[in-house]
Structure prediction request, 53 residues.
Amino acid sequence: MSRQIKCECGFIARGETDDEVVTRIEEHIRSDHPELVGTLTRDEIVGWVEVVE
Prediction:
């Protein structure tokens, strides 16, 4: 099963593991939402991961 995180802006980060998805959403946050950099912990972001079929 794959995993994803949906950003409020509409971006969807997808991957096969939590680590892949978190890494992709962290890259998205750095490029598109720099004001959030440093305000979120990795554990908080992992909590956003959804399992999809």
Observations:
- The chain has a mean pLDDT of 97.
- Strands lie at 2-6, 12-15, 50-52.
